[in-house]
Amino acid sequence: MLIKIDTKEKFSVITPETNEITANMSDELRKCLMDQLVYPIPHVILNLQTKSNIEDSVLLMLSEVQEIFYNENNSFVIFGLNKSILNRLEELELLDTMNITPSESEAWDIVQMEEIERELMHGDDDN
């Protein structure tokens, strides 16, 4: 699977360059996402804008990856999911647990807000 990584100042935008993401692509995508945790800028925005289908096992993996990112105090935001994929996330009871936005600019905003929140929380630890 081809994956494009566009590194910005505060985060990386990761875009799988396929129309579908199947179960056999899950491990490769997971590795790419998890590898970001060791970089100086570990926050990730996952662009799934042009995906027509994402298999359930991949959706479950993305939910697990998001939890790992948040446990490591890093942001993980997905944007651009089509209505059928959003409906499937709802059926799997994952929609409310994941950080999903309609647009890339909204994903940027979430990463920046979470960064401010982390700074404020760490500031309270100093007192």
Short summary of the structure?
With 127 residues, the chain is of the alpha/beta class. The chain has helices at 26-35, 56-71, 83-91, 104-125; strands spanning 3-7, 12-16, 20-21, 44-47, 53-54, 76-79, 100-101.
What does this structure look like?
The protein is an alpha/beta fold and 127 residues long. It has one domain: Transcription Regulator spoIIAA (2-Layer Sandwich). 45% of the residues lie in helices and 19% in strands. A five-stranded mixed beta sheet has the order 1-2-4-6-7, with helices on both faces. A two-stranded parallel ribbon has the order 3-5. Strand 6, helix 3 and strand 7 form a beta-alpha-beta unit. Helix 1 runs parallel beside helix 2. The chain starts with a strand and ends with a helix. The model has no long low-confidence stretch (mean pLDDT 93).
Write the topology of this structure:
Blueprint: E1 3-7, E2 12-16, E3 20-21, H1 26-35, E4 44-47, E5 53-54, H2 56-71, E6 76-79, H3 83-91, E7 100-101, H4 104-125
Helix pairs in contact: 1-2
Observed structural traits:
Transcription Regulator spoIIAA, 127 residues, two-stranded parallel ribbon, five-stranded mixed sheet, 4 helices
Principal-axis shape equals globular
What is the CATH superfamily classification?
STAS domain
Write down the CATH class: Alpha Beta
Low-confidence stretches: none
Report the sheet with the most strands, covering strand number, pairing sense and barrel closure.
5 strands, mixed
The count of DSSP E runs of length 2 or more, i.e. the number of strands, is 7
CATH topology description: Transcription Regulator spoIIAA
Order of helices and strands: EEEHEEHEHEH
- Examine the secondary-structure arrangement and name the CATH architecture: 2-Layer Sandwich
Report strand %: 15-25%
Q: What would the average pLDDT be, to the nearest integer?
A: 93
Domain module tally = 1
User: Rg to the nearest angstrom?
Assistant: 14 Å
What is the straight-line distance between the termini?
Answer: 48 Å
In DSSP terms (H or I, runs of 4 or more residues), the helix count works out at 4
- Class based on secondary structure composition and strand pairing: alpha/beta
Biggest sheet, spatial arrangement of strands: 1-2-4-6-7
Helicity range:
40-55%
